[in-house]
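Appendix B. Extra example for self-study. Work through it before the problem class; the solution is given directly after the inputs so you can check yourself.
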Amino acid sequence: MTTTIIWTIAIIAILGLVLALVLYFVAEKFKVVEDPRIDEVEKVMPGANCGGCGFAGCRAFADAAVKAPNLDNNYCPVGGNDVMKKVAAILGYELKEKAPMVAVVRCNGTCENRPKTNEYDGATSCKVKAALYAGDTGCAYGCLGCGDCVEACQFGAISMDPATGLPVVDESKCTACGACAKACPKHIIELRNKGPRGMRMYVSCVNKDKGPAVKKACAAACIGCGICFKTCQHGAIVFENNVAYIDYTKCKLCRECEAMCPTGAIHGVGFPKPLDKEGVKARIQERQKKAREAAAAAAEAAKLAAAAAEPVKKEENNG
Amino acid sequence: MAKITFSMGGVHPNDAKIAKDRAIEVLPLPQTVYVSMAQHLGAPAKPVVAVGDKVKTGQVIAEPGGFISAFVHSPVSGTVKSIAPQKDLAGNWMTHVEIAVEGDEWAEGIDLSDTLVTEIPEDRAFILDRIKACGVVGLGGATFPTHVKLNPAPGSVAECLIINGAECEPYLTSDYRIMLERTKEIVIGAAIMQKVLGGCRCVIGIEENKPEAIAAMGKAVSELGYKNIEVLSLKKKYPQGGEKQLIDAVMHRQVGSGGLPISVGAVVQNVATSLAVYEAVQKNKPLITNTLTITGDCLPVEKQHNYLFRIGMPLSYIAEQAGGVPEGAAKLISGGPMMGKAIANLDACTVKGSSSILYLSEAATRREPESNCIRCGKCAEACPMGLEPFLLNKLARAGRTDDLEANAVQDCIECGCCLYSCPAHIPLLDIIRQAKGQVMGIIRARAAAAKAAAEAAKAAEAAKK
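Solution. Structure tokens for the complete assembly:
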């Protein structure tokens, strides 16, 4: 009886030892060497796995960041500079800080501004609606209002405003991951810089049609008049395909374009004071008048100079 | 004997052919027409007239913009007012030629008489040229250029020409009316196409709910005495008029995934196309007219019409001629209730393939609120392509394009049987169609990339030598 028990214990113990050895050697042989820094980087990531950086998740980002020679192409928009500083510290790379961004809805086609021309009763999805037809308003470029962006946002930062029928971005929650911009079939949502103390300018329209057609479709659209382009002194406005676009890297937030826009398509957000439209307009007109006068004077002077030079030439010819 | 129909899926909506006894009337000309440059599948046509030009009816105003494209002719005589983008049916911009109508003077060389020309030209190339020059496109719905379809790639042999007179879409009666009123022309058109395809068998397939058309066509075939043409009565089932379904019904052959009908030896042409081919080849008359039905469940029978229209007529003009939009109409559709497109813009103009203006009441078009899928499988049972719409719907919502492709979403013919049969009112078609577009885009991009890679490899090889 006792011998049986002893034998059993002994055999099992030996078997355990042998198997442990086998396991040990197998583990040694097929060991996956992973950079320990990947774990460290992953620990400081936000952990949302949103894909805003372009990778499948935070671990994939960490893996890529560790393998990359620098951090130029790897940036976590959700964590922002704070997280990236930590990542840079772990990896010993230099960090190029980026200005914080925010999703901006570039359409102001509210129910009031942009009357409906037909009724849509298909599946509630912007993707489906965009594939079917131009939309239920006269504008073929504007917001379709089915809320694909709301569904795409993992942070609950976008909601539809039932009064306007347009999506509203909650700045405090928006992480600028860009999921909404990707989900929008009309490419209305753009990631733009948050601006100093939240002040920023943008054109709230992407309609590429010509003026009269646009005006008919929507009261708040960019009609492509080009006044803002002529007004801007900083070269920040790009004017292409009948629609203006403000380059936020060049914009100096002077709000002159906003004051001059005839349809109110240019929006200024986050400014402490409301825009003194008439004042700014008067200032611009004064400046333009002066410029015109200066140009006229210069032209006159050139003419005079030419006239003065003429007789001399003639004399030379005669001589 | 079991009645002939396709083997898989299908639904049985009420056929509602209310306008079937209304004879075809010719619409008077409007003051202005807007002729779209995208009246066919493929590349849009390129205008060849300039603003201010005088044009005659039947004169070429645009030439093909690519291999798969077609000529467009002026439907009226008058002056070209503008060549500019106008909104089409869906509200998208498309180049239109605007012509102010002045009289109705036809271009030379067009036979306008009513005499029936039964003699078929011998020269195959001549027939194809005529069909191409007259801008004939498939009038069954897809508006695929007919000359391309009738000229299959070398190596493929047409064994059977199927003339599609199924008209399986509810409400529509324009094909039915032309089968009654232009019977002989259709048969001659079929014989012409039969000749082009090398004298194969020709079957005119008509659904059993149109016995008068079956009788009339049968009589015309025997009277005209062409060989190897027969009229076949088909069991009524939607979507019998689908190309692949009709081939299945008539020839009992299935076209493979991504395959063309010619791969099983079939060529399918609509009866209206057959009529257009007759007019093009025998009369040299370009495709500038077609028949359309004004119908709907909220329109009294006496207000329903079958009209012979010219292309480019504004839909609003046609609606007015027919007595205006009825009060109870909640939805206006161009085409049938199953596959037609809702009209978002009544100022849009008719194109070669226009087949109807359909007024449907609130009750007929209302969408019930969507509820959860209960996996009853009705959609899979109804799908004539053997797909699983419930699965495709899930995959599409999750954005899994690889799995969608593996489950053959690209084979969907957008017939709407799944949506029609779904007890949970899930907008299956809406979602699957969008996913199909996405997957088709991926497949095309892949093919283009493969082609580019092959060409690059070829170039590299040539450089080596």
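Self-check: Residues 135 and 144 of chain A are 6 Å apart (CA to CA). If your reasoning did not lead you there, revisit section 3.
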